[in-house]
Amino acid sequence: MPSPTLHPVIVTRPAAQATALAQQITARGRPAIVFPLLEILPLNDSAPLQAVLAQLTSYALVVFVSPNAIDAAMRFIPAWPPQVAIGIVGEGSRAALAQYGLTAQNTTIFSPPDLARTDSEGLLQALDLDSLRTAPVLLVRGESGRDFFADALLAAGIKVQAVAAYRRQAPALDAEGKTRLLQLLNSQNDWIVTSSEALRHLLDLVRQVESGSGVAKIQQQHLLVPHARIAETAHALGFSEVTLTGSGDERLLAALQFPL
Predict the structure, then answer these.
(1) What per-residue string of b and e applies to 25-58 under the rule 16 or more CB within 10 Å gives b?
(2) Strand partners, 34
(3) Do the Cβ atoms of 37 and 97 come closer than 8 Å?
(4) What is the model's pLDDT at position 1?
(5) How confident is the model at residue 116 (pLDDT cuts 50, 70, 90)?
(6) Which tens digit of pLDDT belongs to each residue from 150-196?
(7) Can you tell me the mean pLDDT for 205-219?
(8) DSSP 247
(9) Sequence-distant (≥ 6) Cβ neighbours of residue 41 within 8 angstroms
(10) Cα–Cα distance measured from residue 43 to residue 45, given in angstroms and rounded to the nearest whole number
(11) What is the DSSP letter of 224?
(12) Which residues of 159-197 are buried (b: 16+ CB within 10 A; e: fewer)?
């Protein structure tokens, strides 16, 4: 029987973000399989996004909900105005900002103080709400998303504007994808799942390919998740083996076992 450290690691991030993590896992001696559970698509009309981003200096804070939001917005930002602060919720977003030259050395970046709670609630803890009443806050996100953060700021008397930067959708499995998912259901794997939405998509896809025992099989797989909210979702959906790693690739990697 193979050592559990040799089980494949399934990376379920959107395709563009999954490859680098899969390569790091493989380099450390574990097989890695990229199996995206979300597709990130450009907006049908980016004109409203571009119009908002052209007025960045009118905002007290710009919050990016994900690395996808950063990548989508930065296509239309020639240079970040250094006086405008940035809010992020995860270490993946910090790494994405760094790719565009934005770091704590040249930009004010707010993020959750607890790396196990990298969500909107955590970001709120890091903000001085009184200082945000001088100008509105811009929330850059997908076409759909949680309203908690915007609602919390509005309740504190802070003006908030949300703008969509990209679209998300569940992947459609072709015949090859269905075969691969069936194979994964019938083997033991470690699944890296980085959003609650992706986890729900996984269950939907499982029901499509094996409507009988498929859900019970996937619930027995080991999940590694970076955020407490995803862990809560996983337990609510019937997953019993869930490891909360904390935010960032290094913490995900540290939670995996590798061959000596």
Answers:
(1) beeeebebbbbbbbebeebeebeebeebbeebee
(2) 11
(3) no
(4) 40
(5) low
(6) 888 999 899 999 999 999 999 999 999 999 999 999 999 999 999 99
(7) 94
(8) S
(9) 166, 167, 168, 169
(10) 5
(11) E
(12) ebebbbbbbbebbeeeeeeeebbeebbeeebbbbbbbbb
pLDDT-based confidence at 19, cuts 50/70/90?
Answer: very high
Question: Could you say which DSSP state residue 97 is in?
Answer: H
Please name the amino acid found at residue 16. Answer: A
Integer Cα distance of 153 and 136 in angstroms: 10
Q: Which two tokens stand for residue 189?
A: 């794997």
| 101's tokens | 């030259």
Residues ≥6 apart with Cβ < 8 Å to 208: 173, 178
60, burial (CB in 10 Å: exposed 0-12, middle 13-18, buried 19+): middle
Tokens of 146: 């949680």
- Distance between CA 148 and CA 204 in Å, rounded? 25
> pTM for this structure?
0.84
- Adjacent-strand bridge partners of 243: 224
- pLDDT for 259 equals 84
Between CA 238 and CA 29, with CA 10 as vertex, the angle to 5 degrees is: 130
Alpha helices in the chain (DSSP H): 15-27, 47-53, 67-74, 91-99, 120-126, 148-155, 175-185, 196-209, 214-219, 228-236, 249-255
Is residue 218 within 8 A of residue 189, CB to CB? The reply is: no
Residue 204 binned pLDDT confidence (cut-offs 50, 70, 90) = very high
Contact assessment for residue 66 and residue 95, using Cβ atoms and an 8 Å cutoff: no
